[in-house]
Design a protein that fits this description.
Helix content is 39%, strand content 18%.
Length: 558
């Protein structure tokens, strides 16, 4: 610390570690520790963090089990016991994490908040036991678990016992998964080593403060190992978001509201035991569907101006919070999804997103998912199963992306995993084909208890153009291929490929997007009401039977 910095600190001023701007300490506190010059989020103590996040007066400390304090009688430059004593004096804490019950915007939860000021937030036996204690409280009281991480890694002074805390805390997260209890991590700067490689990255939802660094190995270790400088922004929140490893970057001022919204999305609904019947919108009789030229249906399904999945999510759901990434290294923009509420009930939603104009369509890859998109969908399917809530999927894609990178990334494997997993999902699944249902890219989201299609939607093993190029050996035969493929709504309903049709407004969904969204909302209400009351085993059994019968000799429905 320079003399100038010491003098500023003594006078009640703070020097930003990012831009070196000097700010009055009280002003920085009013800004929640965020520099007005560069936006850097300064580190907070666990006490400050709890004060910012929890409802006033709601905090109740948890009482963890006692642990061995100095199992190795470790000494480096100082005895470990002396280091602990000094950390307690400096921070006023007895360990590197505070665990409490509390509420955020009225929603109850258990919380474990780490403090980097206490021995670098290192994960030792006491920290591991406290994280496990918070998880046990969440399990017993069936409330979400919130983790706020700040750690340099496992605590070296406790040797292999510190390493075992990675297992202890990961097991605790697994128990919450088995019980269907939501877990949320807020990553703060820094989160490294054993903490990042265990409980911190196992949560259902992971958000990070701007600029927060997260990873297994620290940058100095990496640079020393590879003998090369790291790219700008490496391991930051923004870097990991772009690689599908976290769900969002949330400024500190918005963090409490974001957490409250997430907690509210999974709260139990107040749906009555016997809700009033939804308006009957599903068409199940083939003769009620007009006969149309299949190629006209194809062109209608692709029409600019039809509502996209994000339009449907915005109009169908009461609330929606988008989640990002496959947690394996990618976040495909052609697939969107997250947590929502439908008729005051929690749901998980996922669908293809084409975009609305040329720029957004290019950015969304025209709704063609990469392997990361299908794996993101798979992650959301698992979340629906864990939380035991319905899964709603929206299909509108020309097909899975057929590029070199997609093949290198295992496109076929990603599609196959989705199809297999959907067949076993123990919650109601409803699919709506809103535009194009192209091949395996569509099917990867469409193994459902109820498969609905909009009146002008199409669903096919291949695009008409692709079929024409292969079998007719000419592109202008696409209309002939469309007729031969039986891809329009009337054909699909007659063959039982879809269970029901949703009528579109006059002129198609593109002529009245709001009307189309309202029709889909009514159709989903009707379909979900039909699936109410089925136990998980029955749902899976009926879904498997639905798909096992395809291709068997039988009469076409009329």
């Amino acid at each position: 610390m320079t003399a100038a910095v010491r003098e500023a600190a003594d006078a009640g001023w703070v020097v930003c570690d990012g831009c070196r701007m000097i700010t009055y300490r009280r002003r920085l506190a009013r800004a929640l520790g965020v520099c007005s010059g560069c936006g850097r989020h300064a580190r907070l103590s666990a006490t400050e963090r709890l004060r910012q996040l929890l409802d006033p007066g709601s905090e109740t400390p948890l009482e963890p089990a006692a642990v061995v304090e100095d199992p190795l009688s470790f000494v480096d430059r100082l005895p470990y016991r002396d280091r602990l004593r000094q950390a307690r004096t400096d921070t006023g804490l007895d360990e590197a994490v505070r665990c409490v019950r509390g509420t955020i915007l009225g929603h109850p939860l258990a919380a474990a908040v780490m403090d980097f000021n206490f021995l670098g937030g290192s994960l030792g036996s006491a920290v591991g036991e406290r994280i496990a204690c918070a998880a046990r409280v969440a399990l017993r009281e069936r409330v979400p678990l919130l983790l706020v991480t700040a750690s340099g890694g496992a605590r070296m002074q406790e040797g292999a016992l510190a390493l075992m805390q990675m297992v202890k805390t990961s097991q605790s997260m697994a128990e919450l998964d088995e019980a269907g209890i939501l877990t949320i991590t807020v990553v703060t700067d820094p989160t490294y080593g054993g903490t990042a490689a265990s409980f911190a990255t196992l949560a259902d939802v992971i958000v990070a403060e701007p600029g927060a660094r997260i990873g297994f190995a620290g940058p100095r270790v990496i640079e020393q190992t590879i003998k090369s400088r790291l790219p700008e922004g490496f391991q930051t929140a923004e870097f990991t978001l772009g690689r599908g490893l976290i769900d969002g970057v949330v400024p500190r001022a918005a963090l409490r509201a974001t957490l409250g919204r997430l907690l509210g999305l999974v709260r139990p609904g107040q749906c009555p035991a016997d809700p009033p019947a939804a308006r009957r919108t599903l068409i199940r009789e083939v003769d009620r569907i007009p006969t149309r030229e299949p190629w006209a249906s194809v062109r209608n399904a692709r029409a600019t101006g039809r509502p996209t999945t994000l339009d449907y999510l915005g109009g169908v759901l009461d609330e929606f919070h988008e989640l990002h990434g496959d947690r394996l290294g990618g976040d495909c923009p052609a697939v969107v999804g997250g947590l929502g509420r439908f008729r005051d009930q929690p749901v998980v939603v996922v669908g293809h997103e084409k975009g609305r104009d040329t720029a957004s369509r290019v950015a969304r890859n025209f709704g063609m998912p990469s392997p990361a998109g299908n794996r993101k969908a798979h992650r959301l399917m698992r979340l629906a199963a864990k939380l035991r809530v319905p899964l709603l999927t929206f299909v509108d894609t020309p097909g899975a992306y057929p590029g070199v990178e997609a093949e290198e990334g295992g496109q076929a494997w990603a599609i196959a995993e989705n199809i297999r997993y959907l067949a076993t999902l123990p919650v109601p699944v409803v699919t709506v084909i809103t535009g194009e249902g192209g091949s395996g890219g569509a099917l990867a989201l469409a193994v459902a208890d109820r498969v609905l299609a909009l009146e002008h939607a199409v669903y096919s093993v291949i695009s008409p153009e692709g079929c024409a190029a292969i079998l007719w050996n000419r592109q202008d035969a696409a209309p002939l291929a469309a007729a031969a493929l039986g891809l329009d709504a009337r054909e699909l309903l007659g063959r039982g490929i879809v269970d029901a049709i949703v009528a579109e407004p006059e002129g198609g969904a593109q002529a009245d997007p709001a009307g189309a969204v309202a029709a889909v909302r009514d159709a989903l209400s009707e379909a979900l009401d039909e699936l109410r009351g089925y136990d998980p085993n029955k749902l899976v059994s009926l879904r498997r039977c639905r798909f096992q019968r395809f291709g068997l000799a039988r009469e076409v429905r009329s």
